[in-house]
């Protein structure tokens, strides 16, 4: 099974590479729609789909600018514009601490997992040791392990360590690397010429020096990819925060847990006034950093691919 | 931290080239292991070994032990319970209910996700310049945190005033009470999932671009129509990606939690439709609301066995259908 996992992953990588190459060099016009009518229909369909995908965002923006009485009215253009929602939301919800907590946790989670995964990947890529293949097979196998199976025991482990209602469980396990990232970095390191390392060895570099002075600097593109993916995963992590933080103080929440909390407390069934416009503002504010990250990250990915493509 | 996020990440992960000859890979083994080198290797991978022993292997053994006990949170100890927790899996009607709901959802969601993602990818593959902007737009929902998605869809799916039913009404179709009618609870969550289907789409797009153009040219010369070309060339050539996506999406569907919890079970006072009780939600409730860790662990093991069996079945089927280039 591990074989198929790695294979499928590699399909993705190679294809992205070809993707970049296709843009620059190859002419595969044959595959493309050529007739004018065909092109028009294709573009209409693509634009229509784009509107469908964008609609919830537009709707979210509209709802965040409405007064309480109109949030549910479903108009895309608010009848009454209430930009004041964006000021008032900070008084209604402890949004500032939530955002601070989320940023701190995401930074820690992403940095730790990127460094530890790189280190482990270098161990698997460069060194020869008994059991290497079996251990790497285990790494791949853990990728297929459903998170639900380890949810309860991991909670009890953190409980035994006295880490409940702290942020530690939300990034602590990242100290030990993560299977997919290890796989990704190992692929990258395997692509580096061995002579590079042998030459440094002759110059007296230690094994640790090979990693910090050669492998790490060269792998910055894939390092950034790991960082971005984990930052996103951590920023969006709802279930983890729900398990580990919901019993603690509200100001220690992360943004996803905070929004869920707001949805509940504003609900009229819980004695709230149905102030969903603030939930909408908060939802928009939690989404925005991810969209910015993507705008930045997407360009970075393509650049990284192009650099590697030129090297190959 | 979930394994699936990582798998999703494969979608946009760019290329590290296949290792060329004479790469940093291990040397041919015509000599014994160098002891210093081996030791250094173990030291480099030691973080993973510790993590594996504690948070994977250790956790699984811990979980197995707990599943045979009645864990008491107050005293932090368990009394042996034999197979009681496993017997309760069959006695508690909510286990069967939630398992049924989850399987039904998976059967509905996975094929739709595959079809929509492949359809979108094939559209994008046919556009030359300008594909990038559409790929970006289609990908945006994937970046959206599940809480934000849930809070928007909670209102979009509203049976009376929601935008989706308004759109249906425009076409003269009376929309259902998505979030109330038990028959429409699962399609609601499928809709939310489809909005974020772009991770799968990106994997398909990458696979499609790897299909050699010559195959289509030859097929066209031989008079194969578009449908024939799709089933005789496209599907076999991207079968590896289809297989990967089916497995990843199935595992994700069987563990569905965020959307169901946020839409139906967040508010503990509300009466949620039984049709929205998914296995992941019930497992969460048993563990972290009832603190019945023994029973929750037994539930987790049942889910693990089910996922394992389904995955093995898919792997077995794939051996008959998946095409791999021989030399790779």
How would you portray this structure in words?
The complex is a heterodimer of chains A (312) and B (328). By secondary structure, chain A is mainly alpha-helical. Chain A has 13 helices and no strands. Chain A has helices spanning 2-24, 36-64, 85-92, 95-126, 132-143, 147-160, 179-190, 194-202, 207-218, 220-236, 239-245, 255-266, 276-311. In chain A, helix 4 (95-126) packs across helix 10 (220-236) and helix 5 (132-143) packs across helix 7. The two termini of chain A are 29 Å apart. Chain B folds into two domains: 30-67, no CATH class; 84-321, MetI-like (MetI-like fold, Orthogonal Bundle). Chain B contains 15 helices and two strands. Chain B has helices spanning 3-9, 35-67, 84-91, 93-125, 131-143, 146-156, 163-170, 185-195, 198-209, 213-221, 226-237, 239-254, 258-265, 279-288, 293-321; strands at residues 69-72, 77-80. Chain B has a two-stranded antiparallel sheet with strand order 1-2. The model of chain B is unreliable at 1-23 (pLDDT under 50). The interface between A and B is large, with 142 and 128 residues.
């Amino acid at each position: 099974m591990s074989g198929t996992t790695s294979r499928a992953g590699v399909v993705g990588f190679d294809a992205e590479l070809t993707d970049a190459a296709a843009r620059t060099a190859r002419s595969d016009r044959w595959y493309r729609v050529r007739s004018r009518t065909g092109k028009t229909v294709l573009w209409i369909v693509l634009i229509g789909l784009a509107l469908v995908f964008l609609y919830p965002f537009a709707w979210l923006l509209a709802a965040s600018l409405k007064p309480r009485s109109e949030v549910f009215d479903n108009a895309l253009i608010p009848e009454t514009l209430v930009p004041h929602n964006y000021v008032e939301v900070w008084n209604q919800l402890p949004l500032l601490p939530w955002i601070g907590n989320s940023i701190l946790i995401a930074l820690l989670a992403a940095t730790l997992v990127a460094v530890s995964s790189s280190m482990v990947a270098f161990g698997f890529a460069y060194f020869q040791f008994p059991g290497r293949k079996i251990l790497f097979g285990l790494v791949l196998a853990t990728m297929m392990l459903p998170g639900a199976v380890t949810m309860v025991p991991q909670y009890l482990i953190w409980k035994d360590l006295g880490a409940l209602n702290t942020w530690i469980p939300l990034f602590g396990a990242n100290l030990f690397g993560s299977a997919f990232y290890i796989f990704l970095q190992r692929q990258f390191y395997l692509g580096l010429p061995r002579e590079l390392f042998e030459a440094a060895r002759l110059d007296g570099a230690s094994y640790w020096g090979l990693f910090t002075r050669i492998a790490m600097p060269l792998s910055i593109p894939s390092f950034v990819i790991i960082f971005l993916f984990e930052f996103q995963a951590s920023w969006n992590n709802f279930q983890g925060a729900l398990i580990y933080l919901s019993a603690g103080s509200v100001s220690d929440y992360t943004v996803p847990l905070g929004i869920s909390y707001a949805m509940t407390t504003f609900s009229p069934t819980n004695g709230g006034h149905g102030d969903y416009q603030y939930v909408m503002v908060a939802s928009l504010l939690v989404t925005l950093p991810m969209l910015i990250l993507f705008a930045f990250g997407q360009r970075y990915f393509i650049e990284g691919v192009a650099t590697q493509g030129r090297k190959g | 931290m979930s394994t699936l996020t990582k798998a999703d990440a494969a979608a946009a992960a760019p290329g590290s080239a296949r290792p060329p000859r004479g790469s940093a890979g291990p040397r041919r083994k015509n000599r014994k292991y160098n002891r210093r080198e081996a030791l250094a290797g173990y030291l480099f991978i030691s973080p993973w070994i510790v993590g594996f022993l504690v948070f994977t292997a250790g956790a699984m053994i811990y979980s197995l032990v707990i599943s045979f006990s009645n864990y008491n949170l107050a005293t932090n100890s368990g009394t042996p319970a034999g197979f009681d927790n496993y017997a309760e899996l069959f006695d508690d009607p909510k286990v069967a209910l939630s398992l049924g709901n989850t399987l039904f959802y998976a059967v509905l969601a996975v094929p739709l996700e595959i079809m929509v993602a492949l359809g979108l990818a094939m559209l994008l593959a046919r556009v030359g310049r300008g594909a990038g902007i559409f790929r970006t737009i289609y990908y945006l929902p994937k970046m959206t945190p599940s809480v934000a998605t849930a809070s928007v869809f909670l209102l979009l799916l509203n049976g009376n005033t929601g935008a989706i039913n308004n759109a249906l009404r425009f076409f003269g179709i009376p929309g259902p009470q998505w979030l109330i009618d038990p028959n429409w609870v699962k399609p609601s969550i499928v809709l939310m999932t489809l909005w974020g289907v772009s991770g799968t789409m990106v994997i398909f797009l990458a696979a499609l671009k790897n299909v050699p153009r010559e195959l289509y040219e030859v097929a066209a010369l031989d008079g194969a129509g578009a449908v024939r070309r799709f089933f005789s060339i496209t599907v076999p050539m991207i079968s590896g990606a289809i297989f990967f996506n089916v497995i990843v999406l199935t595992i994700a569907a069987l563990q569905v939690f965020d959307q169901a919890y946020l839409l139906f079970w967040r508010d503990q006072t509300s009466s949620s439709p039984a049709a929205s009780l998914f296995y992941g939600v019930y497992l969460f409730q048993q563990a972290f609301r009832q603190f019945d860790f023994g029973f929750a662990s037994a539930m987790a093991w049942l889910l693990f066995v089910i996922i394992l069996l389904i995955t093995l079945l898919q792997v077995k089927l794939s051996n008959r259908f998946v095409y791999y280039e021989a030399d790779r």
